[in-house]
Design a protein that fits this description.
Length: 717
Amino acid sequence: MYNKTLLSASILLALNAPVHAEDVKEMEKIVVSATKTEQQKKDISSSIEIVSTDDMSESMASDLKQALKNQPGVSAQGSGRFGLSGFNIRGIENSRIKMMIDDVQQPNSYNPGANEQRFYSNGIEIDTLQQIEINKSPSSVAYGSGALGGLVLLRTKNPGDFLVTDQDETRFGIKTSYASVDDEFKNTATVATRKGNFEGILIGTYASGHETKTHDSGSSVEGPDRGEANPADNDLKNIFAKGIYQVNDSNKVGLTLEYYTKDYDEKELNYNGYSIPSMRPGQSSYDYEDSFNNDENSRFRVGLSHDWLLQTVITDEINWSIDFQGAESISKNHDTTNFAGERNRERKAKENSVQLNAKATKFLDLTDSFHQLTYGLNYISSDFDLDNTDYTIGSGAAKPGATGMPDAKQKQWGLFVQNQAYLLEDQWIITTGLRYDSFETTPSTDEAFSTHYDDNKDSAVTAKLGSVYHINDNLSLFGQISQGFKAPTVYDLYYLYGRGAIIEANPDLKSEKSLSYEMGLRGDNNVVSFELSTFLSEYKDFIATSKTGTSNGKDVFTKQNLNKVEIYGAELSSTLLLDEAFNAPTGSYFRFNLAYADGEDKQTGNALDSVSPLTAGISVGLKRENYGADATMRMVARKTDWSDEDNIDAPGYGLLDLTGFYSPVKDLTLRAGLFNALNKKYWSYNELDGNTGTSAFNIDSKSQPGRNWGVSADYQF
């Protein structure tokens, strides 16, 4: 059961250097995303998936999409030129899922629909991550706007994750890898040190590769019939540094620096010879030739943190941090057309933010119960800016390009309070939480966007009630009722478009709201562990694009609040230790997971395209100190239920991945993997969303990679 002594010890351990790394690694998995405080997973009243740095290494993941591919009910989305577009959790995706690095909120995605620009949260290098936590329930009580459908929390490494003793020491690490799927060579160097009351870690990564390949049956021709991925060069650099200083027994300060940059150069061979009908008198079509682009993405963060033990009447601990973050995307698009000649369209998007997070914790040991009371505040001020320029190569002329939406400032602040009560000698745990949020978006006008819109501002109150009942030491019931909300983004409110089709802005959108119910059963002993959960989520004022009519022969669309959207489903994950159950070879195991979800727009009865089909995963493996192997089969059912009945079906598929490792000497680990070993041709269902089979472009260009392999070597000394 829950151990009050363990809680106190963990706090002292966190605040006092040196950190005993080996002891921490032996403890049960610890999560912070559910309550903003460190808790054992078994005491959490909702379903949370955890992907550790060891899990990422064992699966040979090189990015977040690969790291999450075997998690039930969860997927990272996006590929190709623009990379990660966001996450899908139980059928809810994009800006409705909040992504944070430590306590720092990442920018909302901006996708104007054309192929010239995206602004995605791509500035993440997984070699800097200690753990990924996926909270599958609404998390707005703890994290405010954007956590409508859940939360992805990326926790960065601390020096203690790399150091192996409790003495002064310095350790180095070199990790190198190759992946055939994109011909990427990746190298990461790490140095961590402890001297007296100071601990520090520095991680540097450099990677270079090419395009992520489609299935090898794709055609290599130029033009819309192309099935192979467009050729591209990919270059990535990342620097991560963190320093922690124990000022005294009660105070610890930390400084974190991150800088990520990625260049992606692509020849858009599929656009060479592409034509679209022209509405200009005397011109039948627009014809594209000589298409190529260059994308530059960067993210910079500097953060200061302070942990303070003070043990007063109102608080025992205060944790606060302040961070500055700047993210920028520059897309340079070159082509030649019969109506504009040779041109280069430069598209810049950036968001700078200042973020303050503070929380206080008070422990109350009463006669019949123990309480962990947490309260605090969050404040975010961000500036979103678009700067588009169109260059005509022949004349040298340059003019502002239409942005489709205004620059804008956003301010959000929130207050929250939460109590975790341990009753019946820690057998019954009740978690309650309440939060108030205020948010405001202020658009501006300039030469590229002259339409004036009023500010959009609102507030929200969210609450949650959760409970865990430990039937015995090995079996627990859990359940939670939680609310979430998402304030409309700048893109939701103000984006407009007037070519081909008409998209009208709607600055009066309401914030989206959610109410989620979850119940489950989890168990754990020396033979088997499992978690079974069921959920029902109701969404009100769901923001969706709807057709409102026609104008001059063009369809007119706008974003509207839907009355009600509902998603329900069930998930199961389990691990069986075969050596304990059947006297199998030492270290052998069997894993199984299953995820089912269904959802609809209750107003229209239409299906939700974002809901994934039935998925399942089976793994059999062996893990010993010096060697191990794993075979994982991931199965996805056919998706036939779309809002548009003409949308083509996404075929079902099964994928077999094989991985293994060997440590020939101490501190050296060699890994190899064969992925999609059966060379299955398949498509991710989200890549086929909106495709009715009438597109000019070959569907093979959306296919996922065929058989591919990778190797890595990791030496720590």
